[in-house]
Write a structure and sequence with these properties.
Strand order of the largest sheet: 14-15-17-18-19-20-21-22
Helix content: 40-55%
Largest sheet: 8 strands, mixed, barrel
Length: 563
């Protein structure tokens, strides 16, 4: 026999019981015993009464007789288990009947008592059922506690993921979430002008400390009703809800004045900062719009306040690039990138001396020039692939001819470090002597290109390829680098040549470039020679070669009679 004063009370003292019995004397007797063990005991006179009480109350244990009017114990068991499968139910029966026991087991009875109920049997059943209830409650409580701890830790991790580690303010992740919330908003982007110079001057460690002071400034001087975010290395944002654009614009003006009046102080050093501020309003795409607005404002200079304008040139250009990207991919895959050939004429003999291979793209039966797709190719990383196509197809075309031909090379091609090996491979494959190939590079490579790019060009020239500087005069020229490259040709930018017959400045610039070229033993090619008057001035300057519509437009084949 179980010691009722120790083991059972540990499990039963906090439990509530519903006892269902139609026989009054038995009901009172068993109920009085149950009240010793349990916190509360409710009694029902039959199955229907028991079901009604069960629906209205909260019971840890149901003890029910089987044989009762209105609704018997098996029916009550079935209804209870249908509503709450985990409810503990003990069946009391005066019948030693296998059918009753099988029914009770089938519907999920947790234990059984036989009448007349003996105390030892009762305590044994109560111990087993109550201990099971107790353990389930402990498990449930542990599960709830565990879920609560996991939730707290998850919330802490989410909160951590939503904050900038350096400054403690909300970050881009938090801003993205808040921008998804419905309602009209105004977003203010604040981009610190030239912050890289701060890092270069003071070092990255001190730059971080200065950034923390910037956040302190924003907290002191920013609108208290706007939420502050750090969304990039040197970009911050204020998000306003239910605020007009005019009001936010006034805030932006005030912030610019305040930062001018309160420069950042760092270890006895005053750091003067300025901000480019961009505003956008609406219900969606605000972060995208402020960055588009930043591009719109960029040409106006630093320390400006700009407002995003819908359907701007920037957006139109983005849409064009997106459309062109798909077309360009398709053209590359279907081999619809190919060279057109424009003659370059010897000014002395006025005969074709060489050809420039110019990239063209076919789409829907139309031919498109490089201005349509080369920028997209550069932005999407496809330019080296197009250069390979142009080299391969140009070499293939000229393997049956004798002329010299030129191919345009970009700094991206040089940065990818494939060019030297690829050119040597194609030269051997098509039997093209390198001396017949002129590699045209933009002036910017010679002026500002990485040393690796210059080394590749020097190496290519040593292997026999000729070099030309294209569009010379259009960018910042580095004459010392041009000299070191020992270039074979300098092509004067067409913007000077096309007005050379009626613009003194253009004439003088062309003359200066020609004189420089002669001083380094490079020959000169004049681009955009489109009229006899321009050609006359070009010859007057002693320029050796001309290229332009006066002598021929780019064509997809070379007419034999021109040779």
């Amino acid at each position: 026999m179980i010691n009722a004063t120790t083991d059972i009370f540990k499990y039963t003292k906090s439990l509530n019981v519903l006892y269902v019995e139609d026989e009054e004397s038995s009901r009172k007797q068993i109920a009085s015993i149950l009240s010793i063990f349990f916190a509360s005991v409710a009694t029902a006179v039959d199955g229907q009464d028991g079901w009604e009480q069960y629906e209205q109350g909260a019971f840890d244990l149901v003890i029910t007789d089987i044989s009762m009017p209105s609704m018997n114990g098996i029916e009550l068991l079935q209804k209870i288990k249908s509503k709450e499968p985990l409810q503990k139910v003990v069946i009391i029966s005066a019948h030693d009947n296998g059918d009753y026991l099988l029914s009770a087991i089938r519907y999920g009875a947790d234990s059984f008592l036989l009448k007349p109920v003996e105390q030892e049997q009762l305590e044994d059943v109560l111990y087993k059922v109550s201990s099971a209830i107790y353990n389930e409650k402990l498990q449930k409580a542990y599960q709830i506690q565990l879920e609560s701890e996991v939730k707290k830790k998850s919330e802490a991790l989410i909160e951590q993921a939503m904050r900038d580690k350096l400054t403690g303010v909300f970050n881009r992740n938090k801003l993205d979430r808040m921008l998804l919330e419905p309602g009209h908003k105004v977003l203010m982007l604040l981009d610190i002008d030239n912050f890289d110079n701060i890092n270069t001057t003071y070092g990255y460690y001190n730059g971080d400390l200065i950034m923390q002071q910037v956040v302190h400034f924003f907290k002191e001087h920013g609108n208290k009703n706007a939420q502050l975010f750090r969304i990039g290395h040197d970009e911050f944002a204020f998000l306003y809800s239910h605020t007009s654009m005019d009001s936010v614009y006034a805030d932006a003006q005030r912030l610019q004045k305040d930062i001018a009046a309160h420069p950042i102080e760092y270890e006895n050093t005053i750091v003067k900062l300025t901000f480019t501020i961009i505003l956008a309003e609406g219900e969606k795409d605000l972060l995208r719009n402020v960055h588009i607005g930043h591009k719109q404002t960029r040409n106006l200079g630093k320390n400006r306040i700009g407002v995003y304008k819908k359907d701007s040139h920037v957006e139109k250009k983005q849409k064009q690039i997106q459309k062109c990207t798909y077309i360009l991919h398709q053209a590359v895959e279907e081999s619809k990138i190919f060279p057109y050939f424009q003659p370059i004429v010897d000014n002395e003999t006025q005969k074709i001396d060489k050809y420039e291979c110019l990239a063209r793209m076919e789409h829907d039966g139309k031919i498109y020039g490089p201005a349509t797709f080369l920028e997209t190719a550069e932005l999407t990383g496809m330019l080296p692939r197009i250069t390979r196509i142009m080299i391969d197809k140009s070499f293939d075309y000229f393997q049956q001819r004798q002329e010299t031909f030129s191919i345009n090379i970009s700094e991206i091609d040089l940065n990818d470090d494939y060019l030297e090996a690829f050119l040597e491979e194609k030269s051997k494959a098509y039997g093209i002597d390198p001396s017949r190939v002129v590699l045209e590079v933009l002036e910017g490579i010679s002026a500002n290109g990485a040393q690796n790019s210059l080394n590749q060009l020097i190496s290519l020239r040593e292997k026999g390829f000729q070099l030309a500087i294209d569009d010379f005069g259009a960018q910042n020229s580095n004459f010392e680098r041009v000299y070191r490259l020992s270039v074979d040709y300098i092509k004067i930018d067409g913007s000077f040549i096309k007005e050379i017959d009626n613009n003194v400045n253009s004439y003088n610039i062309a003359k200066a470039i020609t004189d420089f070229a002669k001083s380094i033993n490079a020959k000169v090619i004049a681009e955009h020679v489109d009229s006899p008057n321009v050609f006359s001035k070009v010859k007057e300057l002693g320029i050796e070669f001309s290229q332009g519509y006066f002598f021929g437009k780019p064509q997809n084949r070379i007419d034999q009679e021109l040779l």
